[in-house]
Write a structure and sequence with these properties.
The chain is mainly β and about 450 residues long. The chain has helices at about 1-15, 55-65, 90-95, 140-155, and strands at about 25-30, 35-40, 70, 100-105, 110-120, 125-135, 165-170, 180-185, 195-200, 200-205, 215-220, 225-230, 235-240, 245-250, 255-260, 270-275, 280, 290-295, 300-305, 315-320, 325, 335-340, 345-350, 355-360, 365-370, 380, 390-395, 400-405, 410-415, 420-425, 435-440. The chain has a 6-stranded mixed β-sheet with strand order 3-2-4-5-6-31, with helices on one face.
């Protein structure tokens, strides 16, 4: 049983191999019937000539969702930038269902503003008219916000393009000059930056529910310690450094507590720390290995991995009573569970025919569906809207990040330019801009 945990720990250490940055997204699959949308090039002044256009970012966002098929610019019959220039007949001929037009301008205070108009072509109606603004440095944030708005207006689901991802990378792994870092990037892999670097491994990053802090495991003291870091300021605090295992930190949904794994009493057990006073509560007392906690949406339960039944399986613990229930029964290895919004479905690492995949399970029907078909898939992390998940996998012998939709139909990869990347964590919804103001009737 100890070998199980040590194997996991070794795997995490081997997983954080060298990478410089995330590269161009490769879309592998999308929905069979994608929504046809035209994202017309937005009108913008020469001051933005050296920047990727807003419309290009929006079009790519919608494309990587797998649900939309943006029309190529060369196929457009006209290039309107405001409602008076829109002729619905032109777009119906092309089979376009939705049309997005807009313009970009510089405000008197130096900020950038994007005004856009979304149309339902078949019903010839204007759906959304809004202006989103921010600093020039927030150019991509503005574009992602428009993508979120468009996605929600058409699908009814809140968009998650404005989110961030954390991931771990290392350079020269296995050599005396090895270095590790915790990276943060946009959900499309752009604008990566280093939050912390060390010559010792970094593991198991997770976000606070307000997106302002991250927790992770660092070996900088020579043994695993749990670190709490403010993302904006970079200030860090080692909140546990007991002898033995300090691992798998996970914030509660209200941000007031943190679940973790400690072996301070001799065996890896689940604990919860009150982040206000740092008081610990031990939750499990079993001779098996209990690890990888994650929270239910209401904060009343913890899911975790345990080999108490002989093989790694997923269990649920009720915090009020400490009652434990086994959730997975299919297969001889199930681990790293995450509950989808609503609490009725589960995603986790599932071994089938000796290969590790990401699987989905209906908890009411005990129906298990394998979502991925690559090798050594691990570390699933859900988008905050529950429609997609990011995970680590292998591509031609290198570790990369990949994304798959919850129904398994949409897949894309975020390869690294060099080396391997691992252990992604998708952020909660982030409010990096002021809410876009409506500037017309919807």
């Amino acid at each position: 049983m100890k070998l199980f945990y040590l194997t996991l720990l070794w795997a995490f250490g081997q997983a954080v191999l060298a990478a410089e940055s995330l590269d161009t997204i490769i879309i592998d699959a999308g929905y069979d019937k994608q929504t046809r949308i035209a994202v017309v090039p937005f009108q913008q002044g020469p001051e933005f000539d050296n920047m990727q256009t807003v419309s290009e970012i929006i079009g790519f966002d919608l494309s990587r969702s797998g649900q939309f098929a943006p029309l190529a610019r060369d196929d457009m019959l006209s290039l309107p930038t405001e409602p008076s220039q829109v002729f619905f007949r032109d777009w119906r001929i092309l089979g376009v269902e939705y049309l997005l037009v807009g313009s970009t301008s510089t405000l008197a205070n130096g900020n950038t503003a994007v005004r856009y108009y979304l149309f339902d072509v078949f019903n010839e109606r204007q759906m959304v008219t809004r202006e989103v603004s921010g600093t020039r440095a927030q150019w991509r944030d503005i574009a992602h916000r428009v993508s979120d708005d468009v996605f929600e207006a058409i699908t009814g689901i809140k968009g998650a393009f404005s989110t961030r991802i954390l991931y771990v990378l290392a350079k020269n792994s296995g050599s005396p000059s090895a270095s590790y870092s915790l990276e943060m990037a946009d959900s499309d892999g752009e604008r990566s930056r280093t939050l912390f670097s060390s010559d010792e491994p970094i593991l198991s990053a997770s976000w606070s529910p307000d997106g302002k802090s991250a927790a992770y495991v660092s070996f900088e003291t020579g043994r695993p310690s749990i670190v709490l870091q403010n993302i904006a300021s970079g200030s860090r605090e080692l909140i546990t450094q007991f002898s033995g295992i300090n691992g798998s930190p996970m914030f509660s949904p209200d941000g007031q507590q943190m679940a973790m794994v400690l072996s301070r009493d001799g065996n890896p057990e689940l604990y919860v720390m009150n982040l206000q006073d740092r008081r610990l509560r031990r939750l499990t007392r079993h001779h098996a290995i209990d690890t990888e906690p994650s929270w239910s949406e209401d904060g009343r339960h913890l899911l975790f991995t345990s080999d108490r039944g002989g093989r790694p399986q997923i269990y649920q613990l009720e915090l009020a009573t400490n009652l434990v229930e086994r959730l997975t029964f299919q297969g001889d290895y199930n681990a790293r569970a995450r509950l989808l919004p609503g609490g009725k479905h589960l995603v986790f690492v599932h071994r089938r025919q000796g290969v590790f995949h990401i699987a989905w399970q209906d908890l009411e029907r005990d129906d298990v569906r394998v979502l991925t078909k690559t090798n050594l898939d691990e570390s699933p992390s859900l988008a905050p809207n529950g429609t997609m998940l990011i995970y680590a996998t292998q591509d031609r012998g290198r570790g990369i990040l990949a994304v798959v939709s919850i129904d398994g139909r949409v897949k894309y990869r975020l390869p690294s330019s060099t080396g391997d990347v691992r252990e992604p964590a998708w952020s909660p919804f982030l409010d990096v801009l002021t809410t876009g103001a409506a500037v017309g009737a919807e």
